[in-house]
Amino acid sequence: QSVLTQPPSASGTPGQRVTISCSGSSSNIGSNTVNWYQQLPGTAPKLLIYSNNQRPSGVPDRFSGSKSGTSASLAISGLQSEDEADYYCAAWDDSLNGHWVFGGGTKLTVL
Amino acid sequence: QLQLQESGPGLVKPSETLSLTCTVSGGSISSSSYYWGWIRQPPGKGLEWIGSIYYSGSTYYNPSLKSRVTISVDTSKNQFSLKLSSVTAADTAVYYCARHRRTVTTAGWFDPWGQGTLVTVSS
User: Fold this and answer.
1) How far apart are alpha carbons A18 and A76 in whole angstroms?
2) Where is the composition biased (Polar residues) (chain A) (predicted)?
3) CATH architecture for the domain at A9-110
4) What residues in B contact A1, CB-CB < 8 Å?
5) Partner-chain residue, chosen from B47, B61, B115, that has the shortest CB–CB distance to A88
6) What is the mean pLDDT of each run of 10 residues along chain B (123 residues)?
7) Is the pLDDT score of A108 beyond 90?
8) Where are the beta strands (DSSP E) in chain B?
9) Mean pLDDT across the stretch A8-32?
10) Whole-number mean pLDDT of chain A?
11) Are A47 and B111 a contacting pair at CB < 8 A?
12) What are the backbone angles phi and psi of residue B98, rounded to the nearest 5°?
């Protein structure tokens, strides 16, 4: 029962484009920026997208983020086997004096 | 290159206090643009923010954990610490520390993260 809602799973074949959605509310995504984290199996999360659509240095441009209203999306084009991981969205929530909230995570499988 | 490393007991008894330390290397914990945060992940589940601290000692916590959490900083050792009291099995998780970048216009983001440490609550 995460504050931000993500599909539990997604899949695609190599070379395909996949998108992962993240739905929130006016107190989080609707009024603050969204970040995305990639967690490869057995490792710590890694920042993938910040401020809705900015890529940190070293993140391939195959990864892109967008936000509209109270929802956000992560798109991965040219899917590769090494993209198989869990993906989490996160945003600041203005309620209760403010706190960070995360999505429940989406497990991406490369078929 | 900035690195963070969590340390502390891997096993804590129910009702006791969980204590972890994060050591920052390759950069100063006193940098003005950054907070320092704790995030946890129960086995097989998602991420939960615990709280963050500025080098001055200013803190803010997850409202759901606030009554049990204390985060402190030791700038002389380039470390910050987490204490979570009255733990139960529900507090079993991998605990991560991370640098928390805040900007004038956004709440920021967490980057980089430590490798994480598993803490099990069990008698």
Assistant:
1) 5
2) 1-16
3) Sandwich (2.60)
4) none
5) B47
6) 96 98 96 94 96 95 97 97 98 97 89 98 97
7) yes
8) 3-7, 11-12, 18-25, 34-41, 48-53, 59-61, 69-74, 79-84, 93-101, 109-113, 117-121
9) 97
10) 97
11) yes
12) -155, 155
**Residue B99's beta-bridge partner residues?**
B36
Q: Chain B: which residues have CB within 8 Å of chain A?
A: 39, 46-49, 60-63, 96, 106-116
A38-59 burial, b at 16+ Cβ within 10 Å, e below that, comes to bbeeeebbbbbbbbbbebeeeb
Confidence bin at A6 (pLDDT 50/70/90): very high
CA distance A80 to chain B (A): 23
For tokens 């931000």, what's the residue? A4
Listed by start position, the domains of chain A span: 9-110
| Cβ-contact B122, B14 below 8 angstroms | yes
Q: Six-digit token pair at A49?
A: 């997208």
Instruction: Summarize pLDDT for A35-81 with one digit per residue, the tens.
Output: 999 999 999 999 999 999 999 999 999 999 999 999 999 999 999 99
- CB count within 10 Å of CB B40 equals 23
Give the whole-angstrom CA distance, residue A72 versus residue A35. Answer: 9
Q: What CA–CA distance (Å, rounded) separates A89 from A25?
A: 13
- Tell me the chain B residues in contact with residue A102 when contact means C-beta distances shorter than 8 Å: 46-49
**A26 — contact with chain B (CB < 8 Å)?**
no
Strands B3-7 and B18-25: antiparallel
